[in-house]
Specification:
Layout lengths: L1 H23 L4 E10 L3 H9 L18 E5 L8 E6 L3 E11 L3 E10 L3 E12 L2 E11 L2 H10 L1 H20 L9
Antiparallel strand pairs: 1-7, 2-3, 3-4, 4-5, 5-6, 6-7
């Protein structure tokens, strides 16, 4: 019996070691990206992104937790606007708009505190495309060893990419409504 336990223990140690070796060979940075064409002018789409109060209209994480606690500070929109959240399912963190090019770009610093600590950057690039606006949403950041291990098991792109797709689809639905019906 002790021999079987020893073999089992050595197999577990070897598997964990192999997982750590594979994870350490992954890139030190990650990026998740999705895009969509929205049949609306860039200004209408931009307003949904640049003002955190409008995120409740399209963000996939806003509906995760009915008891989500929200905090807003700084300007209502644009550089310096801050949105903090905390919830049982949505975790906790804070977003700060760090750069804006009206109708074209919003860059956001993301500081997650729960379920794990991470500092990432989200970018929303808006490009006119005929009568539509192409929205490109990316999130990038440093991939610590634990993030690399998680990516081996769960694939960050699949985990977060699906949420980006839901958010962009909701943003499209909101932006394509007649102006009187859309948001604030």
């Amino acid at each position: 019996m002790p021999t079987i336990l020893l073999i089992l223990l050595l197999a577990i140690i070897a598997a964990v070691g192999l997982l750590l070796i594979l994870a350490s060979r992954k890139p030190d940075r990650f990026e998740v990206e999705r895009s969509i064409a929205i049949a609306a002018p860039p200004e209408r789409v931009f307003a949904l992104i640049d003002d955190f109060h409008n995120w409740a209209l399209w963000s996939p994480w806003e509906k995760l937790d009915p008891d989500l606690s929200r905090r807003y500070s700084g300007p209502t929109a644009g550089a310096g606007a801050v949105y903090g959240w905390e919830g049982r399912k949505a975790g906790a963190g804070q977003m700060t708009i760090t750069e804006v090019q009206p109708g074209a770009l919003v860059v956001i610093g993301l500081a997650f505190t729960k379920p794990f600590k991470a500092d990432n950057v989200a970018r929303f690039e808006l490009t006119p495309e005929g009568q539509a606006t192409r929205v490109r949403w990316t999130m990038s950041g440093k991939a610590a060893l634990m993030s690399k291990v998680m990516d081996l098991l769960f694939k960050m792109d699949r985990m977060v990419g699906g949420d980006f797709e839901k958010g962009l689809a909701a943003m499209k639905a909101q932006a394509e409504q007649p102006p009187a019906a859309a948001g604030r």
